[in-house]
Here is the input.
Amino acid sequence: MSQDNAFDARAHRPLLERHAWFAGLPEALKQTLLDAGRLRRLRAGEVLFRRGQPNCGLYAVLRGSVHVGSVTRSGRQNLVAVVPAPHWFGELALIDGGPRTHDTEAREATELLWVPLPDLVNLLTREPQHWQNFAALAVHKLRAAFEELEDAALLGTQARVAKRLLQLSTGHGMLTAQASLRTVALNQEEFAATLGLTRQTVNEVLGLLADQGFIAKGYGRVDILDPAGLQALSRPT
Here is the structure.
């Protein structure tokens, strides 16, 4: 892991503004986060932090992506999420003062905006009203987690795959409307793992969706051709 002391986070503001949480922050808070921000670079496979480690601050992905997950006692890896640019993470430990909840490592060569914990503590001591802003980021993810639990219980496999494709295109609702994607990067093995399905099952469902004209499959990507159709498929029957 490396840092760049000459880093100017303000140059990355247009990218960060594509994230609905950051875009909706008060201007003064945006400036404070950017002024405190430092650059961290990770090599592919490099660990940022492990589950149970102390909180070190808040992160946003500027380039590349990170895996968030855990390893069971038997050594099996459990992938919870793939976090691409320009998403933020690390707010849970900030809010409750507890340790990191998951392992996080670089999926590829990755650059992160890092706001160190002491800067966040100083900010929130001076201006405690901003606690609500950080809580809003955590609550959005909590709502998404509850929705995923409900989907696993109520939706069939095709509906879950269709809905997850739409979620990827909107960053689970955290990309601004202008930043929503019609083409999503897709690693089928990772996609299947986050849904609790097998790669073979996901491949079959994607093939069916392509045959029906909802999507087009490409190498490492899916083009969403009919968002309204996917939305209709993703509703409970």
Remarks:
- Residues 209 and 215 are 6 Å apart (CA to CA).
